[in-house]
Design brief:
By secondary structure, the protein is of the alpha/beta class. It has one domain: Rossmann fold (3-Layer(aba) Sandwich), CATH 3.40.50. Helices cover 40% and strands 23% of the residues. The strands form two sheets. The protein has a six-stranded mixed beta sheet, with helices on both faces. A hairpin with a 2-residue loop joins strand 5 and strand 6. Helix 5 packs across helix 6. It is globular, with a radius of gyration of 15 Å. The model has no long low-confidence stretch (mean pLDDT 95).
Length: 186
């Protein structure tokens, strides 16, 4: 069945290096999918907590409801992401979303962010009201995870049900899911 409209992604991306000459970005992944008419996207560079707060709040506005997948591309560690030298924990992100995430999916494109107890992930879902959260439970190779995230974004925007997207990824890319310690909770 053809899609009625092109699904939307918002990507908030942090710096991958402290060097101003580093040009690493996930932007080309999104451009490739957009050129294939798989998605439409918004990409914003985020360097501070104020910018993260600002763009997440914009994303949660009704006018951006069609951009239902949030892609947070940052360095990470268990239970958090890094904005430069500042760690932002899931509790802070929960406070920013503030129970307004209904119908949205949030992907942490960051190392180890979901390497936390399942009860903490379930609490994040309950407190934010997001439909699903996904990410990695270990440190991942940047290029390998970027390739997987292209497949992930396509699956999240193709399937109407989150479990169908997850099952598709596990069936077709099980080795990659296992190697990256990919986790999805809904």
């Amino acid at each position: 069945m053809p899609r009625k409209q092109t699904p939307g992604i918002i990507c908030l991306e942090g710096e991958w290096s402290n060097k101003l000459t580093d040009t690493s970005t996930v932007h080309p992944i999104l451009e490739l999918l957009a050129h294939q008419q798989q998605i439409k996207f918004i990409h914003k560079d985020v360097g501070t907590l104020d910018e993260l707060d600002y763009y997440v709040n914009k994303w949660l506005q009704k006018q951006y409801a069609e951009y239902n997948v949030g892609y947070l591309a940052f360095h990470g560690d268990p239970g958090g992401i890094w904005l430069g030298r500042k760690r932002v924990d899931l509790e802070t992100i929960t406070g920013i979303i503030d129970r307004r995430g209904s119908g949205r999916i949030l992907h942490f494109g960051s190392c180890s962010t979901l390497d936390i107890a399942p009860r903490h992930i379930k609490q994040f879902l309950a407190d934010t009201k997001v439909k699903a959260v996904c990410g990695y439970r270990e440190d991942v190779d940047w290029l390998e995870s970027a390739a997987f995230e292209m497949l992930l974004v396509e699956a999240l925007t193709y399937y109407r049900r989150v479990d169908a997207a997850y099952n598709y990824l596990r069936k077709n890319y099980s080795n990659l899911c296992r190697r990256l310690q990919f986790k999805m909770v809904w």
